[in-house]
Write the structure tokens for this entry.
Amino acid sequence: MFEGLSNKLSSIIDRLVGKGALTENDVNMAMREIRIALLEADVALPVVKEFIETVKAKAIGQDVVKSISAGQMVVKIVHDHLVEVLGQKNSELNLNAAPPQVIMLVGLQGAGKTTLTAKLALRLKNKRHKKVLMASLDVKRPAAQLQLATLGEQANIATLPIVQGQNPVEITKRALQTARLEGFDVILLDTAGRLHIDDELMDEVKDVHHAGTPIETLLVVDALTGQDAVNVAKAFNEKLPLTGVVLTRVDGDARGGAALSMRSITGCPIKFLSTGEKLDQLDDFHPERVASRILDMGDVVSLVEKASEIIDQEEAEKMAKKLEKGKFDLDDLANQLKQFSKMGGIQNLLNLLPGMGQLKKDMPKGVDEKVVPRQLAIISSMTLKERKDYKVLNASRKKRIAAGSGTTVQDVNKLLKRFEEASKMMKHLSKVGKRGLFSGGLFSK
């Protein structure tokens, strides 16, 4: 997300920083380019106008123009105002009410509400230690209730039993009664959507809202819809007391206009970003971190948080002991690769590192996301003896491994070469500090 906007803003700001002292004309030209970049990213026109006016007023101030680091000052002004537009600070779910607390999800059909319901339930269960009940109110879309039930089984989250013939309000009342009787902390209401805003849809969600009295009413918006997402948000915000916005499919949206417009248009905070189909792919929305990523400053805090969630402490300690003895085999490499994959893959990690925007552009063939699965397949096709001592791998063994992993002998040789490089580096770790695998070139083509 934000890739296109990030590349353009970074390019504009790099030129400003390179100039040192700035004239008012320099600032005006930069603001014009930023305005175009924001509009091309599908940011709502009123938001663009306000953004440019505010940043320009601050950037042409005497303190900035006369500053010896004027370019850096402008970067700070743009960054700070991006944070302001995005909502200043992270806004967590409000669960300050007697249980069962009701969270209602609304939005158009196809926005990803059902999958998001399961993601949110899993998050509440794992991170907030809540007993969650999910209820599908979509009685019009075929198999919608069965879809939520299936997701519930996958996540080991309870779903309200399906009773044919009930309307959304009746289902809501039954969910409340079930939650009270069975001691659930939170109820998630997955409401029906339509392909467009209409009176029937709005009447239905208003009736459900009245029956469920939710503590949180979250608007679920597909980031890929761009400017239309803003119109949807405006329509729902006029009819319902929204408390937050969740953007789905943000991994497929390189523009980011919806995120930059939502807060200004609705006055509601963006609470989460949903990045894929897996139930654990739901991230908190941190305005300051997102602003830094837009300006190619990276997001090291999120990177560290992801690592701390994924990396098994016990396994890390075992690895440290092996490294102290200078031991490192292909099983160890496979474990490291699996942890790397769980952190979101190469592209995702590059997005979180400062200054990587230009590096990604300079890569002649881009980033190959298939490298890690391919290397894992090769290692999985080896015997235990081969994984422990790769030097036994002769030509016939390599041919067998390539056939078993669906790769080529060249791919096997490439992995072994990278492994040798990593092994040499690992032997130095006890002397130079634990820098990890990523600087060893394992993930290049």
Summary: Confidence is low (pLDDT under 50) at residues 362-367, 432-445. The two ends are 24 Å apart (CA to CA).
